[in-house]
């Protein structure tokens, strides 16, 4: 005889269960293809977006353009920090070679596959950073705060100002132009970033230095 707890347990229909099994099989097959083909772990999209974490990857063209901009701004032998901007980090690793060092600050621990260059980061604790990230030790900080709110931008700005020697490249919504200027002293660029999936909000880039964007 089943007890009361068993009676209350939700049961998946046979159709739902079959669909779920098919999904997991396709996922395993995709991972198998990645492994068998020597999949580039630095390719944009190698780690899929998690919308619950407000993740929206840039298009390849945008990620490449921002990476080139960061490399030019940092200079040869420079240091670049990517705060909540994994698409740019991935393109930087694909382009930088030994010319500069890069690190990625991210809340999503899936990016720990990048080893020592990965730094767990929670914008709610903007200065909770490892000692190896010395103050004002990066030639440029590239940042894309996960949420379009002044609170998120303000806290992320604390991290950015702690890390950068001066140069800032910020990507966020056009609606954040005034808060971005207030908290980081950045101005909107002509370049308009695009994402691999269409977003309802207009995105823009902001800098505080002379830029080609």
UniProtKB/TrEMBL annotation:
Gene Ontology biological-process entries: methylation
GO cellular component: cytoplasm
GO MF entries: nucleic acid binding; protein-lysine N-methyltransferase activity
One of the Pfam families matching this protein, by short name: N6-adenineMlase
Source species of the chain: Rhinopomastus cyanomelas (Common scimitarbill)
Highest taxon above the source species: Eukaryota
Localization in the cell: Cytoplasm
Protein name: EFMT1 methyltransferase
InterPro entries tied to this protein: DNA_methylase_N6_adenine_CS, Efm5/EEF1AKMT1, Mlase_EEF1AKMT1/ZCCHC4, SAM-dependent_MTases_sf
């Amino acid at each position: 005889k089943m007890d009361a707890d068993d009676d209350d347990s939700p049961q998946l229909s046979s159709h739902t269960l079959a669909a779920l099994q098919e999904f997991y099989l396709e996922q395993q097959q995709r991972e198998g293809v990645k492994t068998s083909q020597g999949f580039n772990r630095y390719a944009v999209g190698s780690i899929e977006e998690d919308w619950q974490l407000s993740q929206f990857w840039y298009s390849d063209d945008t990620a490449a353009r921002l990476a080139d901009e960061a490399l030019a701004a940092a200079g040869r032998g420079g240091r670049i920090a990517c705060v909540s901007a994994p698409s740019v980090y991935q393109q930087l690793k694909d382009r930088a070679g030994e010319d500069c060092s890069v690190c990625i600050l991210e809340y999503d621990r899936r990016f720990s596959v990048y080893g020592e260059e990965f730094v767990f980061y929670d914008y709610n604790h903007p200065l909770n950073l490892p000692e190896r990230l010395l103050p004002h030790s990066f030639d440029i900080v590239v940042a894309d705060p996960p949420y379009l709110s002044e609170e998120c931008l303000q806290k992320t700005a604390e991290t950015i100002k702690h890390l950068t020697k001066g140069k800032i490249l910020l990507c966020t919504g056009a609606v954040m132009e005034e808060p971005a200027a207030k908290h980081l002293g950045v101005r909107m660029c002509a370049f308009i970033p695009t994402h691999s999936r269409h977003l309802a909000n207009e995105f823009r880039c902001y800098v505080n230095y002379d830029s080609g964007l």
